[in-house]
Design brief:
Strand content: 25-35%
Distance between the termini: 13 Å
CATH class of the largest domain: Alpha Beta
Bound molecules: cytidine-5'-monophosphate
Number of helices: 12
Radius of gyration: 19 Å
Helix content: 25-40%
Shape: globular
CATH architecture of the largest domain: 2-Layer Sandwich
Length: about 325
């Protein structure tokens, strides 16, 4: 394949259908068992040939995204170049559709998209395992962001076991209008609440009810099994979220939960039509909901500069297909 001059990747947000948080480990991370699910809210990242690694962000929340070396997409491109032993640069352009600091792993999504795009842009030949290893160094949620669809995450979330699912889940997503929540602050608040109540967490375990309901396409069963151990901490740091959750329940959602470390709130609906009705009721109550469905496939190369006239371009290449070629 000829080396492209630019590569465009669409990457979905994630939600945690279950987030069981265990004890703090010696390295400061918490032992978790989580069920990750990709949902149809996307960031688009384009990497184009350049001498240095730089980033530009567009979209309504662009001002909230750092553009320096702390940007996760920049860190991802730098780490990939270092590990692959290349001196290549890339101009990264990100169109943010995923809520920023919302508990939907938007930063991790951009890191995964940057890995995939730069890997193709620089014509590298790392295998899937090597890329997942680099992803795990960048953040606990980045391996799943590279993988997508549905998986159980253990360790600090970076060790993945893919899941099959018949369930197609329809979500109403309410991003916070205001500031996001910092993930370390939410984990710290979770520890404080546990100290205050004298509760010592056990090592977390997988939830077979949830996995079974997902496999069988049992949406009410999924609704009953949704749970997020970080929710009390997110509610303590942002008490207004309790009203948002109540509003979604009053709007008829099957279940209401905070997404990851928050503050985005998620409402599960029975099907697409029900999701629209829940969203309309939330809009009437003064919220700004968006619809999403999942699980959806992980990041996909949607354009690598060979359009038009190349059949391969017309088939959007998923990360799994693309890396499977390696
Ligand atoms: O891995 P990542 O950089 O996304 O984690 C951000 C922060 O979230 C960590 O520094 C830590 O404070 C917290 N965290 C945790 N346990 C996890 C994952 C994240 O305490 N399993």
């Amino acid at each position: 394949m000829e080396q492209p001059r630019y590569v465009t990747v669409d990457v979905p947000a994630k939600i945690n259908l279950r987030l069981a948080v265990g004890p703090v480990r010696a390295d400061g991370y918490h032992e978790v068992v989580t069920v990750y699910c990709s949902v149809s809210l996307y960031d688009r990242l384009r990497a184009s040939t350049a001498g240095e690694i730089t980033v530009e962000v567009v979209g309504p929340q662009a001002a909230l995204v750092p553009l320096d070396g702390s940007n996760l997409a920049v860190r991802a491109a730098r780490l990939l170049a270092e590990r692959a032993g290349v001196a290549s640069g890339a101009r990264l352009w990100i169109d943010k559709g995923i809520p920023v600091a919302g508990g939907m792993a938007g930063g991790s999504a951009d890191a995964a998209a940057a890995l995939l795009a730069c890997h193709r842009l620089w014509d590298l030949d790392l295998d899937r395992g090597e890329l997942l290893g680099i992803a795990a160094e960048l953040g606990s949620d980045v391996p799943f962001a590279l993988h997508g669809f549905l998986a159980v995450g253990t360790g600090r979330g970076e060790r993945l076991r893919p899941l099959e699912a018949a369930a197609r889940l329809h979500w109403v997503v309410v991003p916070s209008g205001g500031e996001g929540l910092s993930t370390p602050a939410v984990y710290a608040a979770c520890d404080r609440i546990r100290e205050e109540t004298g509760w010592t967490p056990e090592p977390p375990r997988a939830d077979d009810d949830l996995v079974g309901a997902l496999r069988e396409g049992d949406v009410p069963g999924v609704a009953r099994a949704l749970a997020n151990d970080l929710e009390p901490a997110a509610l303590r740091l942002n008490p207004a979220l309790a009203r948002t959750l109540d509003a979604g329940r009053a709007a008829g959602a099957l279940a209401a939960m905070v997404s990851g470390s928050g503050p985005t709130c998620l409402f599960l609906a029975a099907d697409g039509r029900h999701a629209t009705a829940v969203a309309e009721a939330l809009t009437a109550a003064g919220y700004a909901p968006v619809l999403a469905a999942g699980p959806v496939p992980g990041p996909a190369v949607v354009d690598d500069g060979r359009y038009p006239g190349d059949e391969a371009w017309h088939k959007a290449m998923s990360a799994a297909d693309y890396l499977g070629e390696r």
